[in-house]
Amino acid sequence: MLEKFETVRTTITVPTDLIKRSQYFIDGGSIPSRNALIVTALERFLLELERQEIDRQFETLADDKAYQAMNQQIAEAFAESDWDALVEGETE
């Protein structure tokens, strides 16, 4: 799994309960190793944080008058072609 990535060995402290809970799935073959579990969980968590950051940045655009004006100009500029595409799509 990690062979295709540059890796760094590190040490972490994990609550005993999480070790016990994860061992159940390791022993059952659901996950290949605790390392794989941690890497997958960390990747998913970071992706969620990144999505939240993108959403937060987009939220600031809601009050950005310059962005809203530009967006309106773009919508107006493409209104005719958008309509043509819609009509053409409905006839197919």
Give an overview of the whole structure.
The structure is a single chain. The protein is an all-alpha fold and 92 residues long. The protein folds into 2 domains: 17-61; 64-92. It is 73% helix and 0% strand. The protein has helices at 16-27, 34-61, 65-91. The longest helix is centred in the middle third of the chain and has 28 residues, at 34-61. The two termini are 46 Å apart.
SSE topology:
Layout: H1 16-27, H2 34-61, H3 65-91
Give a count of the beta strands, DSSP E runs of length 2 or more: 0
Please tell me the total number of domains.
2
Order of helices and strands, N to C?
HHH
The residue-averaged pLDDT reads: 90
How far do the termini sit from each other?
Answer: 46 Å
Rg from Cα:
24 Å
| Beta-strand content estimate | under 5%
- Tell me the helix content: over 70%
Q: Please give the count of helices.
A: 3
Q: Which structural category do the helix and sheet elements fall into?
A: mainly alpha
Main sheet summary: none
Shape: elongated
Low-confidence stretches: none
